[in-house]
Design brief:
The complex is a heterodimer of chains A (373) and B (516). Chain A is of the alpha/beta class. Helix content of chain A is 19%, strand content 32%. Chain A has a 7-stranded mixed β-sheet with strand order 1-3-2-4-8-9-12, sandwiched between helices. In chain A, strand 2, helix 1 and strand 3 form a beta-alpha-beta unit. In chain A, helix 4 packs across helix 5. The longest helix of chain A is centred in the N-terminal third of the chain and has 15 residues. Chain A is globular and about 75 Å long. Chain B is α+β, with helices and mostly antiparallel strands. Chain B has 13 helices and 25 strands. In chain B, helix 2 runs antiparallel to helix 3, helix 2 packs parallel to helix 5 and helix 8 packs across helix 9. Chain B is globular, with a radius of gyration of 26 Å. The longest helix of chain B is centred in the last third of the chain and has 17 residues. In chain B, strands 8, 9, 14, 15, 18 and 19 form a 6-stranded antiparallel β-sheet that branches. A 6-stranded antiparallel β-sheet of chain B has the order 23-22-21-20-24-25. Chain B has a 4-stranded antiparallel β-sheet with strand order 3-2-5-6, with helices on one face. Classes of the chains: A alpha/beta (373), B alpha+beta (516). At the A-B interface, helix 3, helix 5, strand 12, strand 18 and strand 19 of A face strand 5, strand 6, helix 3, helix 7 and helix 9 of B.
Chain lengths: 373, 516
């Protein structure tokens, strides 16, 4: 089976990723099939965000092959776009049917299982539902009218099974809804599980399992854009949740889980919506080292009236001899490199006097307030 | 003369002095020059060379305070970090400091949807495990200093309750072990427009409860946050770290805690030194050690927790997972394989004991039972247990640290929960914030025709509990406030009862006091 990316590292310690994006569902409204799913599942539509989100995550991995605990080894990518979607899937990408997902999952497991120092990365974006566990809906969900759930992956059980894999670091990211429909309450879904539970198999050492939404809540994304959780995930892995350890900036599993909700709010700040991620982490461990991360800065004068009159001059990051100097209007918001800055406020008119303050821009964001008198 | 920074953490709440706060002093390249765990009201001096430094204080709730400070030669510079800003009220600091809750609210109890919101306490009695509604307990102080009072503080953005559940009493087993037979508790909140929701409440300790309008988006999210904790803020903070997934800080703090008590690493015994009197804190420590895969540090203690406190499902769950870890060490070895049956029995025992105190326990209980099912041991018992646990999981909110689920009673969890007023015949209850006027009339606190006054407003109470003002009729005070675009009129605290010359809030106050 061709892979989206194979660095040819074979059995050497590597990062192996399985990435799935499902936007096209033939039996949902707007799908290719004439047969529609019955109403007990509520109104489920075609999605434009998951194929783009999956592709964005895969491309980001490809563009950032280093800095991980081991170099990037393989990426397997499964994408199903909606029929009316203009999205064009790259070559070597297979449709995300349940059989393809299970086959790819098995092959990915085998790649990850080759070395204990491998890192396994699983990513899914598409429709999801939750009852006693979360179910991820494959393209052909509902194909079997007698058991529509045959086209879904029972995620939590499958996650539990995968613990048996030798890869010590296992990262699972699920960008899908966790809502429940009235119809689902009446019976127990019989979804597919990859593999079988083996009670003798230990749990992996470094577990990070992240779900984009809390139970019974939605995971959202813009039309034709990358889903909000995925944006937050990519920003976090780029350094938005990094911590300085010695001379290095490091993204750790514990920091990623603990701070993803803050990053998500930055991603969606304009609309003020609060999506709540839920994570399970074992021991916190480094995922990757990154270069100096960017920090979302919002600098305001207090009182607010001073904003209209202030001319801000910002020097930094310190301590280089010649730090970048910016002259901006207040309030000032933008992305700046993590570091220490000195900000000066001058007032050409009004009652306020010259003010000067230092501030520390530490990821992911820094709301600063300059007290003006 | 030395130079440096004097960091002063500022907080006001009662009993929050022990809340751990990570303080870091960063140099200009943001490398940490100092990292130390301080207590929430502590001041500490950090010696530094002259320069500019960033000071960061991180709470278990995830809130971070930052300030940049310039240190001059020979001077100590003060850096005061106002941790109290994280909480809207002093009495709620325990929740906002230790639990992963959003401080930015927005909703208020004065909104119409929260009218008639009530709270009551359930008790599960051994051995049959029947749940019944009971008054809130008034118990003797453990140090025999009289009764522990039931306390409550009301505000439109959150109501805080504090009380002590029944004290630990024990009997001796045949083997000479002390067995604690406390009851299990659950608090339930609901309302005519609010789905009924239950939260597990620890036994034998002082309990703190914060009920507040949710900060999460309304619609699919339950409109209330109910945060339950014990007065052991160290355990609450550790639970906050684990619940938020911030295992890096959890590991750092438990290590610092161990070192401060002279141990090379944190052991269950040290973490849970007061296990006999504080089993809920012991359970928190157990869950942390399971997450951190530090099974060996649980020692025999997990077995004790499971055996000594038969009312608590958490002990049996922690012990079961310790046994699973032990069994897994046999993998690949020769000889007779150990049986999985004792693990299954422990997990089945946990299900018999009722609801685990913590969401982490519910998750581990389900995962453990799935493993049991895969072994085929005790098949039918495991299937029935899984069915029960799955119903709780479906109705639960795993973002809450204490086990939280929707349901009409604690033994009837449901994803489609009941809404409505509570039936007094089922047992005592209290209104959380605003009291329906009809309920106040039923209790004789008000009567039809009473006149309410507020600055520039006057309203008459009708016999059906509605209000008439300027010839217009309003269903509730909240409706009137909305129609008049005046939020200040939405609460019963804004009005006076004319003939009594007393605030309406004070008149209806008896209906807000927790029943005892």
């Amino acid at each position: 089976m061709p892979l989206f990316h194979d660095a040819g590292r074979k059995k050497r310690p590597s990062v192996h990723a399985l990435i799935i994006g499902v936007g096209g569902y033939p039996r949902f409204a707007g799908g290719r099939s004439r047969v529609r799913l019955d109403t007990r599942f509520g109104r489920l539509n075609q999605l434009t965000s998951p194929p783009r989100s999956a592709q964005a995550f895969a491309r980001w991995l490809l563009a950032n092959p280093s800095g991980w605990q081991a170099p990037l080894g393989t990426i397997d990518l499964l994408i199903s776009p909606a029929p009316s979607d203009t999205f064009s899937a790259p070559r070597s990408v297979r449709p995300a049917t349940i059989e393809n997902i299970l086959t790819a999952f098995g092959a990915w497991h085998d790649r990850c299982n080759q070395h204990a120092d491998n890192a396994a990365v699983f990513y899914f974006c598409g429709h999801g539902a939750e009852k006693d566990e979360q179910y991820l809906l494959a393209e052909d969900f509902g194909a079997d009218a007698n058991n529509p759930w045959d086209g879904a992956l029972a995620f939590d059980t499958t996650r539990q099974v995968f613990h048996g894999c030798r890869a010590r670091s296992q990262y699972f990211f699920v960008d899908a809804c966790r809502s429940i429909t009235a119809g689902m309450l009446r019976y127990q879904p019989r979804a597919r599980v990859w593999g079988t539970l083996d009670w003798e198999a230990s749990e992996c050492e470094y577990d990070l399992t992240m779900k984009a939404a809390a139970r019974n809540e939605l995971a959202l994304g813009p039309k034709d854009g990358v889903a909000y959780f995925t944006q937050a995930l990519i920003q976090s892995l780029e350094g938005a949740v990094a911590v300085k350890q010695g001379r290095n900036w490091v993204v750790e599993t514990g920091q990623l889980a603990g701070r993803i909700n803050y990053v998500l709010k930055l991603v969606k700040a304009s609309e003020g919506y609060r999506q709540r991620c839920k994570s399970v982490v074992s021991v916190s461990a480094p995922i990757r080292t990154v270069s100096t991360p960017m920090v979302r800065l919002v600098l305001n004068c207090n009182p607010e009236l001073a904003n209209k009159l202030a001319q801000l001059r910002c020097e930094g990051p310190l301590p280089p001899d010649q730090p970048v100097v910016r002259t901006v209007n207040s309030p000032w918001s933008g992305d700046i490199a993590a570091g220490m800055y000195r900000v000066k406020a001058d007032f050409l008119k009004g009652k306020y006097r010259h003010q000067e303050e230092y501030f520390t821009a530490y990821p992911p964001s820094h709301p600063a307030r300059l007290e003006c008198k | 003369m030395a130079s440096g920074i004097v960091v002063q953490l500022a907080a006001h709440g009662n009993e929050i002095d022990n809340v751990p706060v990570m303080v870091e002093i960063l140099d200009q390249s943001l490398q940490a020059q100092w990292q130390a765990w301080l207590r929430a009201q502590e001041a500490r001096t950090f010696e530094l060379r002259p320069g500019v430094f960033g000071v960061r204080a991180s709470l278990a709730s995830g809130v971070v305070f930052e300030k940049s400070v310039e240190v001059r030669r020979g001077q100590m510079t003060d850096c005061r970090l106002p941790l109290h800003d994280a909480s809207p009220h002093e009495s709620n600091e325990w929740a906002y400091f230790t639990q992963p809750i959003d401080a930015v609210g927005g909703q208020k109890f004065t909104e119409h949807r929260y009218l008639g919101l009530w709270i009551r306490l359930w008790e599960r009695l051994p051995p049959q495990g029947e749940w019944r509604v009971v008054p809130f307990p008034v118990v003797e102080h453990p140090d025999h200093r009289g009764e522990v009072p039931i306390e409550a503080r009301w505000a439109a953005d959150g109501v805080n309750y504090s009380f002590r559940t029944h004290p630990a009493f024990f009997r001796w087993s045949r083997e000479g072990e002390a067995i604690h037979d406390e009851q299990q508790y659950a608090v339930q909140v609901g309302g005519p427009m609010v789905p009924w929701k239950c939260v597990a409440v620890p036994t034998g300790c002082r309990v703190e409860i914060l009920v507040r309008p949710t900060a999460a988006p309304l619609g699919r999210t339950h409109p209330l946050d109910v945060i339950v904790s014990t007065s052991n803020v160290k355990a609450a903070a550790l639970l906050g770290f684990v619940q938020r997934g911030d295992m890096a800080l959890a590991q750092s703090w438990t290590q610092a805690w161990a070192e401060s008590s002279g141990a090379p690493e944190l052991t269950a015994e040290r973490l849970l030194a007061k296990k006999v009197w504080d089993p809920p804190a012991a359970a928190v420590g157990g869950y942390y050690l399971l997450r951190a895969r530090a099974f060996e540090r649980l020692h025999d203690w997990a077995n004790n927790l499971a055996n000594w406190f038969p009312w608590m499902a958490d002990g049996a769950i922690i012990r079961a997972w310790q046994m699973i870890a032990d069994l897994r060490r046999w993998r690949g070895r020769r000889g007779r394989k150990p049986s999985f049956e004792p693990v299954c029995l422990r997990l089945l025992e946990a299900v018999d004991r009722g609801v685990p105190l913590y969401s982490e326990g519910l998750r581990l209980l389900r995962e453990g039972l799935l493993l049991c099912r895969s072994t085929g041991v005790n098949k039918s018992a495991v299937e029935s247990a899984l069915k029960i646990v799955s119903t709780y999981v479906e109705a639960s909110d795993p973002t809450a640290a204490a086990t939280t689920f929707t349901g009409s009673t604690p033994d009837r969890p449901s994803s489609r929960p009941k809404k409505g007023p509570v039936d007094i015949a089922e047992g005592p209850f209290a209104y959380v914030h605003d009291v329906p006027l009809a309920a106040a009339m039923e209790r004789g606190l008000l009567k039809p025709g009473d006149i309410l006054t507020a600055p520039g407003r006057k309203a008459r109470i009708e016999s059906d509990g509605t209000l008439t003002s300027d010839r217009r009729q309003y269903a509730t005070l909240a409706h009137m406030a909305a129609a008049l675009h005046d939020d200040s009129l939405g609460s019963d605290w804004a009005w006076k009862v004319k003939h009594k010359n007393e605030a309406l809030g004070s008149v209806v106050q008896p209906l807000r006091e927790l029943p005892r």
